[in-house]
Amino acid sequence: MWPFNRLIRKGFEKGIGSLASDPLAADGKPIDATWAGENGTEKPMEHYQAELELSQLKTFLLGMQHSFDRGLSESQTEIVYNRAGGLRIQKQFCCHYNIMHQGEVTNLEISVHHDTSTRYILDLRGIGSAMTVLHGNLQKLAEN
Questions:
Q1: Is the separation of the CB atoms in 57 and 122 below 8 Å?
Q2: Is the CB of residue 51 less than 8 Å from the CB of residue 115?
Q3: How large is the average pLDDT for residues 45-72?
Q4: What letter would DSSP give residue 21?
Q5: What pLDDT score was predicted for residue 72?
Q6: In a domain, 41, yes or no
């Protein structure tokens, strides 16, 4: 490796790398409380999956819109629903949202892909208290 390249890389790691926020302080405790669970450890990402019909998917998305302080807007719900309706087998899409639930931010990733001609797989991954609410709503919907 050329000495110049090494110098550039070291400068990058020292300058830019130090700007990146580290979720853990030197003593191993989270700097930001949003990273921490009740016992002070980093919260793992929760993962829920359900097989739904398109109408059930729309019901779930509309429910999300009304379940949070700041949830999906009506236009966002329509976009997700319309994109799901246009899916073909082996295709999928993913959306990322930050939603508010009782003042707490929840990071949410919604993934949808086609399973068969009438079924869709809804995949939810996220961190935050709203994930418990989402899981409960998803279970109720899948049972009906």
A1: yes
A2: yes
A3: 77
A4: P
A5: 61
A6: no
**Phi-psi domain of 32 (left: phi exceeds 0; alpha: psi -120 through 50; beta: other):** beta
Phi then psi dihedrals of residue 126, to 5 deg: 180, 175
Q: Please tell me the distance from the alpha carbon of residue 118 to that of residue 54, in angstroms, as a whole number.
A: 7
Which residues, other chains included, contact 50 with Cβ-Cβ below 8 Å and sequence gap of 6+?
121, 122, 138, 139, 141, 142
On whether residue 72 sits in a domain, the answer given is yes
Query: How many domains does the chain contain in total?
Result: 2
- Same domain, yes or no: 72 and 15: no
Statement to judge: residues 135 and 114 lie in one domain: yes
pLDDT in tens, 111-129: 888 776 678 888 888 888 7
Return d(Cα 33, Cα 127) in angstroms, integer: 13
For the full predicted model, state whether its pTM sits above 0.85. Answer: no
